[in-house]
Amino acid sequence: MAVLLAFGMVAERDRRAWLVETGEAIDHDGPEGAAVVLGARDSDPARVAIACADLAGLIELGGTVIAGAGIDLGDGFVSARLAGAGGDRRDAVLAALRVLKVGGGWRLGERTATLVALFGVTATKPVGATAEQAIGEGRWAAVVLASAAADLLGPEQLVRVLELRAPDGIDPMPHGAASVLAANLRRVLEPCSRPGRLELVLDLWERVCARQRAVLERERLVASHDLSGLESLRERSDRFSEQQLIELVQRSAPGPLTLPTAIRFLPTWRNLWKHCVERMIQDALAATVLLRAAVAVHELGVVAGIDRVREEIAVVSAMLSSRDIKAAKAAAGEPNALPVRPVVHVREIDAWLRQQQPRNAAYERFVRARMRTALAYAIVVDGRCRMLLGIDIPARSFPVEHWDSSSLRAWRAVAGNTAQRPPQDWPVDPMVRTHGQPSLAVRLAGDPAAAEHASDLLWLADLADAIARARGHEAAVLAHYYRVPEFETNPAAPQPDPLTPRSDSVPLAVAGAAQLVDLGATAPARCRDWARLCAGLVGSGVVAAALTSEFEVAEPVLAHDGAVLPGTSLRIQIARTATRLAEWSDHMGNCIAGHWYQSRAVRGRSILLGLRDEHDHLQVNAELRRAGRGWAVGEIAGRFNQEADPAVRQAVRDWAVTLRVEEPEPDPVESVAAEPPARARRSSAPDPVREVGPALHEAVRKAMVESESALRVLAALAGDTDGDPKTLTALRRSGTDRLTALCVAFLDANPAALPALWTAGGSRPLAAAIESLDAAILTRYPRLPTITGDAPVPSKRLRALLKEPDIATARSMDLIAQRVRAALGRLAHHGDPALTHAITRHPTPDLLCPLILATTCTPTHHTPVTAISAPRASTVPGYPATSLSAPDGPWLTAWPAALELGTPDPGPDHEAFWSHIADHGLLIPTAWLASGGWAALWARAHRE
Fold it and tell me: Degrees (nearest 5) of the Cα angle 126, 93, 508?
């Protein structure tokens, strides 16, 4: 029997295969996709061993895929792979050329055959010459992309693709097989015209290169900072600040500073604190200009970068006297230690420029040495500012009204304000003794000529923005504040939308677009721009509808969800919804979220798996298919459909053999049945449809009558003013983004309906009906309440119960109500204007309390927030005053609703919540306080 080879080939009958790993002879079947050496049946074993060793060396350099290229191993031996290998021959040829280079291409056979393997019928002489040039120059990204696009483009177009060059350090094709990319490109670009296909490919290349270049530049910027001396600088800075404070007290004391004099000394704004604050503002401005200079030097080079901030350097340098500079240098201690104040470095750069010294290599080394420590200075100064303003200076010591700084006035006259932090948008209350003074944004709204003061603390935001820019972000994010604003200067990147194709690499972008096509999306007509193509695919209505599917998973398999795959360290994750598949596909670059897989999973014919490593990174996707009374592995692949590790493949197959379609006995968790009589010959399986259905149906009918007003409100979201229950089905199938958009449109059109929408979001007719059932039924069916949750129902018997129309309608209403609450939580978190407008005009206590609890416990904020209670205080001011710890008060009773908004679980006794209260007090979005502050909002809530 002939040996079956990969890519549909069969070995000649007079030839034999030898496994590379073991040297074992193969006459017919062998391990799927294994690398082998082909040669004459009567070959000398010594010659076979030499050929196996040669191929093993090549595999070590290029992977197992290289064996499929048919490499000449000498003495009549060639490489091959057994049947079952993934991809096609072009993947093997590309892998071989990476190792053999152009000079070793003869080992793959005739040049024409090699080019045909890569480019098919478009392998003309110009294509071949351009490809050889690209291979010789190591431009593999262009070669792989051209090979993948060969079926879609003409020869002249392929030449343009092969001529593409990526910037240094950029690789648009870092992973993925050309065969997989070719299949995805075909699905996405085949409806387009040939000229349009080329323009889309070239535009995608440019977008990916720009994206990777931005990421690389950010990494280089972050790596340019030296924080090794941060702790030492902080300690010396603290000691210097204490010394300066003592000197200020000595100057203000009536006589020599003795212990009795120090005890009697009463620090005030005039005699002490304004001097401390002025020095701190000087350090903050110096750190700001150093960081701006560091970013400019990184982007433009030393000379042009310093020129960009030359005026700012000069004005900061002039703020301190030579005596102050000398004192800061002396406090450094060791000769090579950093000065304790950043203005020293600013003065040194300014002196070099004023003396017109040559800007040569020595100047570049001089500047870069000071740029490397700019971030360390900024971090130290930022911490000292918060300590001084928030802790050291008592609140009663600040002036009654605004206070100013001569240093800040000089700085603004030269530097102005940044586009990222315009004063018209600065919402923070000024740091003065009198509470409730208008912020800078409010003052400018009333009088565009209103002046900025140092008490507005906008200079502190400039410092935070400079730190954020030095870490590769556009600006810092104002998180929350009590007296002193807090910023997130290194915010986490937002989670990408799994449906939007990502431009991290060409294979990932094309795989994301192909997934949308598989879901039924169509590309816009005559589209020649990749961004427009993706927008058209994402905007297709069929995509959102396709991702509402829930999958039927056999309970014996579902029991392994989260378990470790036997024989490996990988954890099993089972997909139960189409949304999960979209997340997997976005990361893996495959089409597992396509219609074919979904349709089988919905019917329970397939079960789709993900295997995650110990770091929770998805490594492998697999499909289990029904095979008689058990399961068999249909497909299994790694990222970008690359071949999974053979050991993992075998482990999945061994595990699948142990699974059954259904358990032979009733699930003891679903039904807790009494012990059968001793003489009973058999026990009947519990049937919830027969035993629970009638009672639950009657309870649901009563609950739906009581929820009629909530039904009308929820149906109105979809434009149905009659409250037709059938509208609920369409709403339930809406994706998260669509339902959120419907809530925004509803509130925008009718802000006064917010209290009714909030009440409707708390309506749970199915949950209420189940709670009203007899206790014996709930004891016999303890999993019955799970049908009210927003997750696939785990039991086939319980799913049968939901086929009753009235019960299905009640469940739809429960799910929509839960999702509406979650949507309101998202709108509040992101500061949606429609919700803000509605809540400031029509607040209610049962609406405000959960939203404020959610805001307080959110780790990061996308909109400015304000503290309405002091840190560690349990009393919330307002009329009426309330207590956070009162068991029957509005705050503790609001926790169930707060959790429905998406609030992180605060743990036992709300420990995490009390930790937030200790840190910063109770927080509320600042925009909600625009009409009279918290007292007016809370009073208005009790009048509604």
Answer: 90
DSSP string, 23-86: --EESS--STT-EEEEEETT--HHHHHHHHHHHHHHHHHH-GGGGGG--EEETTEEEEEBTT--
Is residue 661 pLDDT above 80, yes or no? no
Q: In terms of pTM, does the model score above 0.85?
A: no
pLDDT in tens, 196-246: 999 999 999 999 999 999 999 999 999 999 999 899 999 999 889 888 888
Q: What is the mean pLDDT of residues 506-513?
A: 92
DSSP per-residue string spanning 788-846: GSSS----HHHHHHTTSHHHHHHHHHHHHHHHHHHHHHHHHHTT-HHHHHHHHHS--HH
Q: Quick: pLDDT tens for 385-427.
A: 989 998 888 888 999 889 999 999 999 999 999 999 999 989 8
Strand order in the sheet with 571-574: 571-574, 606-612, 618-627, 630-637
Contacts with 271 (C-beta within 8 Å, 6 or more apart), sequence order = 252
Beta strand extents in 439-561 (DSSP E only): 477-482, 484-488
> Residue 689 has which token pair?
């449809």
Whole-number Å distance between alpha carbons of 894 and 889: 9
Which ranges of 265-359 does DSSP label H, i.e. alpha helix?
A: 274-300, 302-308, 310-317, 322-330, 343-354
Enumerate long-range contacts of 97-100, CB under 8 Å, 24 or more apart. Answer: 97/135, 97/143, 98/62, 98/140, 99/58, 99/61, 99/62, 99/66, 100/71
Residue 321's φ and ψ, nearest 5 degrees, are -80, 165
Residue 176 binned pLDDT confidence (cut-offs 50, 70, 90)? confident
Please, how many CA atoms are within 13 Å of residue 44, restricted to the half-sphere of its CB? 7
The enclosing H or E element of 655 equals helix 646-657
* Nearest C-alpha neighbor of 937 from the set 862, 877, 892, 864: 877
Helices 178-189 and 194-223: crossing angle in degrees, nearest 10, is 130
